[in-house]
Prior knowledge:
By secondary structure, the protein is α/β, with parallel strands linked by helices.
Amino acid sequence: MHRRQVKKPMSKQSVFKRLWNWWNRERRILTLKAGLMALLPLLCCIAACAAQGGGLSRVYLPSSEWNDELFYYKQVEGILSHGYPQGYFGFNESHALKLSFAAWSPVLVWPWLLHGLLFGWNLMSPVYSNILLLTLALLLFVLLVKPSWKQLGLTALLFCCFWPYTRYMLCGMPEIICFSMLIVYWGLLVNTVEKETGSKVALLFLMGGVMTLMRPYLILFMLAPAYLWIRRRGGIGIAGSLAVLGVTAGGYVLIKHYLGAEYFTPLFKTEWLDPFLQGRILGGVKGILAKLYYEGRTFFALTLQGLKSGLAEGAFFALYLAILLILLWQCLTDLLKKRKKQALLNGYLAFCFFSMWMALLLMYKMKEGSKHLLTFMAVGILVIAMLETRFYKKAMVMAALCVYLFWYRGDQPGDYQVYFASQERVEQMAHWQEVFERELALREENTPNFDNVVIWTFNDMLAGSENGETVLTDWQVLYALPEGWGISCCYREYVEEHLEELQSLYLAIPEGGQLQESCEALGMEQVGRDGRVCVYRTR
């Protein structure tokens, strides 16, 4: 009889040896590359702050002039503290059919929610979260794409030159969330094309679906895994891809319908669809061509202005077109040299760029729409750095264009300035935090409700002004609102018309304006003031 041999447990030394052997020289070099690239976001932020006379810890959201940041910050705060904001977020007192979110999909901020759960939520949390997200994205991108040292150097160069990376890390806007998601997605796609597996395709679908629920135009990036699935499984892939795309698009529509508050104006221009819905196909085609022509003229006029004067949206447009042209040229070159995989990837990204450009011309306002192009540009910059070309001329041209547009021409404070804490703003915030904690009591019955909402108006006419002089509202004081409160951004005309029948319980307006005179005449109770802004209880 043979005795059964019992395997001895592996010693710690042999486990370490096997791990070291697995982590061979090639993997160690790749890890070093990824680690070096991961240092860039923090270093760029520190350098940018120092160049503008401040430190990273002095970045201060209430000093910023971007009021979207207020909405995102307070909504995340309300979700973390109460599950959802207890007061409505909206515009001219609009509100979502369900719960209390503003016009944008709440899925957009899910990484911030995770950051808040792990580390807490304060005025620096969006900044630190953005830096961490882009750090992880670059780390994973390098591990997935495996660049050469030259490619890594070009990637670092273009990252430093592309100012929106740094600017959006140092603010409370969620663009970095979109940047990071798409960068990791593209790295995974490149890796999948090199060595395809079913699990990678499924993960591409998952990432594409989440990105679509964040921003609907990112559904373009669900076409790649759909193609890969169809190529693998034929009819099953077609049916499955259509089902996944349909469910994802339907999910976004439901989120927008039930969880989105109505904006001042429609977020998407869809009047060009009317002829098609009425059965006038030829008229619809003519309408689209006419709209593309006239909007295209505006687009190119702004592009020229960006090249001449550094106008932010024009600079974005110029760089966007440059990336698109480089991708198209590289795709053609790859086809001529029979590099099918590279041609497929570069052609696909060029298709996504072109499709988003058409969507901008047909559906978006130019200024607001320009910021949506940044997500595509964020990954396009990295793709150009990774192009397998002999002298890397395309990458160097792109770096020079970024330096010209963002560092030489870029001088608009709102788009290029990092906002730091000032003594005046800090003292103002401390004052209002004390006022709000004393005067505002969150009503948690039948929530969300309008008793937990503060209105702020964009501006007001100065009392006694003969030439119609206006004064802006210091909306930044609303960062001091207690957790769970909602905010309704309203036009002055709306407040004037509905002053005696406002649904929201509190109203924040500039001091010395006509609205203040009206509030006093109606006997509204003033709950606080600071010489620049005053808050009234409307009933």
